[in-house]
Specification:
- The complex is a heterodimer.
- Chain A is built from no helices and ten strands.
- Chain A is mostly beta strands.
- In chain A, strands 2, 4, 5, 8, 9 and 10 form a six-stranded mixed beta sheet that branches.
- In chain A, strand 4 and strand 5 form a beta hairpin.
- Chain A starts with a strand and ends with a strand.
- By secondary structure, chain B is mainly beta.
- Chain B has strands at 4-7, 10-14, 19-25, 30-38, 45-51, 56-59, 62-67, 72-77, 86-94, 101-102, 106-111.
- In chain B, the strands form two sheets. In chain B, strands 2, 4, 5, 9, 10 and 11 form a six-stranded mixed beta sheet that branches. Chain B has a five-stranded antiparallel beta sheet with strand order 1-3-8-7-6, with no helix packed on it.
- In chain B, a hairpin with a 6-residue loop joins strand 9 (86-94) and strand 10.
- Chain B is globular, with a radius of gyration of 13 Å.
- Classes of the chains: A mainly beta, B mainly beta.
């Protein structure tokens, strides 16, 4: 597809379980971002990958959160030992380069519900 | 760090009227200001953006203005239509960081 693809679109899991969320960026985009959107709130930055550089992890809320980007393309966000406050929509975006004035294009997100 | 404030949180207009949403930012190093439209169950969609070397930009019924001195920028939608109803987010970023800092959003309702 032409846009950013995220899977699954919905995920329900029990507290304490680990979850993996996947993001397929737009082909050729070197920068990839993860954001979190809690109910009725704005978007909160989590982590940013640019090419082969070390990722900017400054937005990750705890050490239970981690992310990888393999081969400079697909990214996986992992949340270990999920808590109820992790319930949110997790959004992925990509841009052509990591320059601050490059448009970021978003996927439709993964809606995560922790029971 | 950067802080972006957005007003109003909700806005209701009659079809055909104009809508204005305003944002302020705190970091004078910010140089890129996009606006996103988010419909229910969808990801944010970029509708217009402006860079700090420009004061105004228009695209059909949508325009954005930027006042760097006052550190605020605004979205103007003219001749509103029911399909403009959505949540709109402003954001800012600066050269030394790639991620966007978002406002908390404005829920726009256009009544037919």
């Amino acid at each position: 597809g032409a846009g950013v693809s995220q899977s699954p679109s919905n995920k329900v899991t029990e507290k304490g379980k680990d979850v993996e969320l996947r993001c397929d960026p737009i082909s050729g985009h070197t920068a990839l971002y993860w954001y979190r959107q809690s109910l009725g709130q704005g978007l909160e930055f989590l982590i940013y990958f640019q090419g082969n550089s070390a990722p900017d992890k400054s937005g990750l809320p705890s050490d239970r959160f981690s992310a990888e980007r393999t081969g400079g393309s697909v990214s996986t966000l992992t949340i270990q030992r999920t808590q109820q406050e992790d319930s949110a929509v997790y959004l992925c975006a990509s841009s052509l380069t990591g320059s601050s004035n490059q448009p970021q294009h978003f996927g439709d997100g993964t809606r995560l519900s922790i029971l | 760090g950067e802080n972006v404030e957005q007003h109003p949180s909700t806005l209701s207009v009659q079809e055909g009227d104009s809508a204005v949403i305003k944002c302020t930012y705190s970091d004078s190093a910010s140089n890129y200001f996009p606006w996103y439209k988010q419909e229910l169950g969808k990801g944010p969609q970029l509708i217009i953006d402006i860079r700090s070397n420009v004061g105004e930009k228009k695209d059909q019924r949508i325009a954005v203005t930027l006042n760097k001195t006052a550190k605020h920028f605004s979205l103007h939608i003219t001749e509103t239509q029911p399909e403009d109803s959505a949540v709109y987010f402003c954001a800012a970023s600066k050269r030394s960081q790639g991620n966007l800092i978002f406002g908390k959003g404005t829920k726009l309702s256009v009544k037919p």
